[in-house]
Specification:
With 743 residues, this protein is an alpha/beta fold. 45% of the residues lie in helices and 8% in strands. The protein contains 29 helices and 15 strands. Strands 5, 6, 7, 8, 9, 10, 11, 14 and 15 form a nine-stranded mixed sheet that branches. Strands 2-3-1-4 form a four-stranded antiparallel sheet, with helices on one face. Strands 12-13 form a two-stranded antiparallel sheet. Strand 12 and strand 13 form a beta hairpin. Helix 11 crosses helix 12. The radius of gyration is 31 Å and the shape is globular. The structure holds S-adenosylmethionine. The site of S-adenosylmethionine has 22 residues, from helix 17, helix 19 and helix 28. Belongs to the class I-like SAM-binding methyltransferase superfamily. RsmB/NOP family. One of its GO terms (cellular component) is nucleolus.
């Protein structure tokens, strides 16, 4: 049965529905209460009826049935009991796999197909069929189970009439309580919907003056009023003509709204504006709201050690309430409730699972590493994705798991050991320079890039205040360098692969589409391909704030906390269609396995572009053999390495100004020593900003002599730098060179 489905392409992941958690919790409480009462009533009855002739009792019941008399009022639940099929063996481990749960069984079966030796034996298959009949417990709930009768209220080894008998006052009370709870949950949901609808459609007769209720300065803001004003302003922005004050413009309203968002949610103005600009005002509000609540807890089954069914059973035995994360994943389990810390169970310690956000599955699924391949995970710590890749490759082939941060690489090693990944080698290098120099010719490369983390604000609220303009210059620049290295490390002629997946847990365009666009421009030998992740999520932007991106950018996927209830994420899959452009002999960034087609030197030098790259302009053809024009078409003008330098310099000047320093005084200070030393960490094509790094260090030195406030922000920026890049050798080199420079 499962074979056909096993071959089926993985469908789009269904959104994780948190409303279900509330309903499930309430349902569980009601059911356990009812079940407890039923058991107590049963015990009482049994002791009363001791010695009584059971056959007579059943006959009596039958008689009363044929007479049309019933002992208890016929409720919906009672009908369910009457229709219930008898003779089902009670299983020690409770799993709800009602016949309507066929989908879930298929998932388990499918999973078994990919897990090592987990379900090969006939015994195991029989175990599965036993499971199919098991209706005793619903701790593992299929997402489709809503609205299905809960037959499992009663034990299965009883026949129809026994079940009927057990409709005592005790369990009827339990059942009606359950219904009440369900109704209450539905009412709450409806109420919430009404409120939302009112927000969208409330057309007040007058024009609310949101500017009137300014709060006195110096006082703590009244959060309720602030929230009200936020929703009012959003409503006004939805129909400015009718609701707006005649003397106020859209900009005035947006300005007020952004200030209120900053105060209410605690963002710095720069970040609030950046995030706000991604959405309509109404959706931006939903996004900011979603960042205030945690995402569902998800664990990934490590199929190198177990299978999902066994893991689910083991955890259910410990009292964990969980269900499969959705049809899109055969290894994910969403955890609703756990009486035990999930990071300390024996199953966790034995490496049967890893705590991993649902959206973190997606880049690996998009990369789809195959058994036997050579795969690179460029920025791998703490290893959630590395270990998933290793499992998909069934511990065959080779995964190079690299991370620039030594302490983080140690955590990565820990996870690799715990999860039993034997095909993985850990390296601790700056991926910008190490690859493909040290190693190249990979079948696939994953670059889960260091980022500003704007997709995971619910996990790290520090992002709200710590990320500023400077970060949005520095980090995208590093992402570009890393992605160039990723592409150059892939073997375009790989029989099975030739793919790069680029992902970030950030939602900003600068770190996502803009990085990919830059790469398309620098590397005409790559093209965007479908991620294979279906319709889940939203397409990447093809234009943003006046900038046009490649039309294929729509094939990249964006995920948002408020839309899919997962961490904000971006996934782009690239296919390398030809050899890496040849760099100058001094910039030997091409791998041995990726033999480039060099142009004649005279011609090459004439085509040298601003950052000294020699581009192999051999036409790249698409799958239909048609030459692809990377230069023209829908490509809008876009910044290159030099633009970066300019933007970074501008942001640096702004940063210094904010600290009360004169940028001219600081940045134009004559420097001794070799500035270029810091470029050791960068490719020749992207060396320009290294000067800025030197300047930054110099500026930081300057600020040490300045007042405390200036020192503080300087230290902050140092700290962030540490977090993002880690204590790499190249960092040390940078520090040395900047020391020299500032001397
Ligand atoms: C988003 S995290 C990676 C998470 C990881 N892929 C996972 O799923 O567990 C980014 C990582 O990039 C590392 N990193 C930062 N700069 C790097 C560089 N230049 N080269 C390699 N790794 C770097 C950071 O230390 C950090 O661990």
């Amino acid at each position: 049965m499962g074979v056909g489905r096993r071959m089926k392409k993985q469908g789009p992941p269904a959104p994780l529905d948190e409303s279900k958690i509330t309903i499930l919790k309430k349902r569980k409480t009601a059911e356990s209460e009812a079940a407890a009462k039923a058991v107590a009533a049963k015990k009482r009855r049994r002791s009363d009826a001791d010695g009584e002739d059971v056959v007579t009792k059943k006959e009596n019941v039958k008689k009363s049935k044929t007479n049309g008399n019933t002992a208890a009022p016929v409720t919906k639940e009672r009908k369910v009991v009457q229709e219930k099929k008898p003779v089902q063996k009670k299983k020690p481990v409770p799993m709800d796999t009602d016949s309507e749960d066929e989908e879930m069984e298929d998932e388990f079966e499918d999973l078994d197909g990919i897990s090592e030796g987990s379900m090969d034996s006939q015994e195991d298959i029989e175990g599965l069929s036993d499971l199919e009949n098991d209706t005793d417990d619903d701790s593992v709930l299929d997402s489709d189970d809503e609205g299905h009768p809960r037959e499992t209220m009663f034990s299965d080894d009883e026949d129809l009439s026994d079940a009927e008998e057990r409709l005592t006052a005790a369990n009827i009370e339990g059942l009606s309580r359950k219904l009440d709870l369900q109704r209450q949950a539905e009412e709450e949901e409806a109420e919430q919907e009404l409120q939302e609808a009112a927000m969208q459609t409330n057309i007040a007769g007058d024009r609310p003056d949101v500017f009137a209720d300014e709060q006195p300065a110096g006082l703590a803001p009244d959060l309720q009023l602030l929230r009200q004003r936020i929703t009012d302003t959003i409503r006004i922005l939805g129909d400015l003509k009718t609701l707006g004050q005649p003397d106020k413009s859209r900009t005035d309203y947006i300005d007020l709204l952004l200030n209120d968002i900053c105060t209410y949610y605690g963002y710095n103005r720069y970040l609030a504006e950046k995030l706000f600009n991604l959405f309509t005002p109404m959706e931006a509000f939903a996004f900011f709201e979603a960042n205030e609540t945690p995402r569902p807890v998800v664990i990934r089954t490590n199929t190198l050690r177990t299978n999902r069914r066994s893991l689910a059973q083991a955890l259910i035995n410990r009292g964990v309430v969980l269900e499969p994360v959705g049809k899109w994943s055969k290894v994910g389990l969403q955890v609703f409730e756990s009486p035990v810390p999930l990071g300390a169970t024996p199953e966790y310690l034995a490496g049967h699972y890893i705590l991993q956000a649902a959206s973190s599955f997606l880049p690996v699924m998009a990369l789809a590493p195959q058994p036997g391949e050579r795969v690179l995970d460029m920025a791998a710590a703490p290893g959630g994705k590395t270990t998933y890749m290793s499992a998909l490759m069934r511990n065959t082939g080779c995964v190079i798991a690299n991370d620039a941060s030594k302490p983080r690489a140690k955590g990565l090693i820990g996870n690799i050991h715990r999860l039993g990944c034997k095909n993985t080698i850990v390296t601790n290098m700056d991926a910008r320079t190490a690859f493909p120099k040290a190693m190249g010719g990979f079948d696939r490369v994953l670059l889960d890039a260091p980022c500003t983390g704007t997709g995971v604000i619910s996990k790290d609220a520090g992002v709200k205040t710590s990320k500023d303009e400077n970060d949005f210059m520095r980090i995208p620049h590093m992402q570009r360098q890393l992605l160039l290295a990723a592409i150059d490390s892939v073997d375009h002629s790989s029989k099975t692969g030739g793919y790069v997946v680029y992902s970030t847990c950030s939602v900003t365009v600068e770190e996502n589409e803009a990085v990919v666009q830059y790469i398309l421009r620098k590397r005409p030998n790559v093209k965007i391909v479908d991620t294979g992740l279906g319709d889940f999520g939203s397409p990447g932007f093809i234009s943003y704030m006046g900038k046009k991106f490649d039309a294929k950018m729509a094939l990249t996927r964006r995920y948002f906390p408020h839309r899919e209830n997962v961490d904000g994420f971006y996934v782009c899959k690239l296919k390398k269609t030809g050899p890496t452009p040849v760099a100058k002999p001094t910039d030997d960034t091409t791998s041995a396995n990726d033999k480039p087609r060099r142009r004649s030197s005279s011609k090459a030098s004439s085509t040298t572009d601003a950052d000294d790259e020699i581009i192999d302009r051999t036409p790249i053809v698409d799958e239909n053999g048609v030459s692809v024009d990377f230069e023209g078409g829908s490509f809008g003008p876009f910044e290159d390495g030099n633009d970066d330098a300019e933007r970074i310099a501008r942001s640096e000047r702004n940063r210094l100004r904010r600290k009360g320093l004169n940028p001219k005084g600081v940045l134009n200070k004559p420097k001794k020593g070799k500035e270029g030393a810091s470029t050791q960490t960068e490719t020749a094509s992207d060396s320009a900003p290294s000067k800025e790094q030197v300047k930054e260090k110099t500026a930081e030195k300057e600020t040490k002599k300045k007042p405390e406030s200036a020192k503080k922000s300087s230290n902050e920026s140092k700290g962030e730098k540490k977090t993002v890049v880690g204590g790499t050798k190249s960092d040390k080199k940078d520090k040395k060179s900047s020391k020299k420079a500032s001397k």
